[in-house]
Amino acid sequence: MKKLLFPLSIVVLFSLSLYTVINYNKNNSAKSNSYSIVDNQKTSDNNNNSISKTPSTNSTNGIFKDPNGDKAIDFKLKTLEGKEVSLSDLKGKNVFINFWATWCPYCVQEMPEIEKLYQETKNSDLIILGIDIGEDNDTVRDFLNKNKLNFNILFDYDESVATNYNITALPTSLFIDKNGNIIKKKIGPMTLEEMKSYVNLLK
After folding, report:
1. What domain range is 169 assigned to?
2. In terms of DSSP bridges, do strands 169-170 and 20-23 run parallel, antiparallel, or are they unpaired?
3. Where is this region: Disordered (predicted)?
C-alpha cells in the first residue's frame, strides 16, 4: 500500500505545481521557497478586488485592483551597466514593473511574453522594468543573453524594494500610470494579451 501511495503523492504534487506561484520568503534566502496555490486560469477582472500592500488571502484569482490608485513607492536601483534608475525620474510615463528571479520557473515562463510587449511598445511612453530580487549580475546577465531578452533589468540586491512593496510571491507585476498611481497589481505569470489589457488601463 505504501508503494502505491508514494508515486500517487508525486503525481498530485506535480499537478498542483502547475497552478502555483513561488512564494518569496523574506526570512530566508530567496532560493528557500514555499509554494502558494494560485489558479491562473481565473484571471478575469473583479471590481471588488482591491490592491493591497498585503495580498488578500480571500482572493482566488491573483489579481488585486485599487480603483483609487495607491501611490507607487519611489526607489533607486542599478542596471547591469551600473546606471542608477529612479522611479520618480519616470513620472509622466506609464510603467510596468515585474518582480522576478531566474530560479522562478513561472518568471522564466513569462519572460518571452514581456519581451514581446517590449518589442511592440519600446517606442511608446510605456517603460518596462524587470526587477530581479537578490541575485548577482553574472547570473542574470547569462540568463538574459541565453534568452535574448532586451528590456530593462534592475537589481534589488538587498531586497529592500521588494520589502517596501510587500512582494510575497513571484512573479508579481505592477502597472503604474503617468501620475505615479498603482492601477493594477497581478500575482502570477501573464500572457501577452493579459499584459496588454492591463497596459490599456493606464491610458
Report:
1. 2-200
2. antiparallel
3. 38-65
Report whether pLDDT(18) > 60: no
**Model's pTM, two decimal places?**
0.73
Q: What percentage of the chain exceeds 90 in pLDDT?
A: 64
Q: Which three cell numbers stand for residue 42?
A: 481565473
pLDDT above 90 (res 102)? yes
Q: What CATH number does the domain containing 139 carry? A: 3.40.30.10
Q: How many whole angstroms separate alpha carbon 161 and alpha carbon 184?
A: 18
Q: What are phi and psi of 184, to 5 degrees?
A: -150, 140
- Please count the other Cβ atoms lying within 10 Å of the Cβ belonging to residue 6: 9
CA-to-CA separations, 20 to 58, 80, 103, 148, 156, in angstroms, rounded: 16, 29, 14, 26, 23
The yes-or-no verdict on residue 53 having pLDDT over 80 is: no
Q: Considering its fold, how many domains does the chain have in total?
A: 1
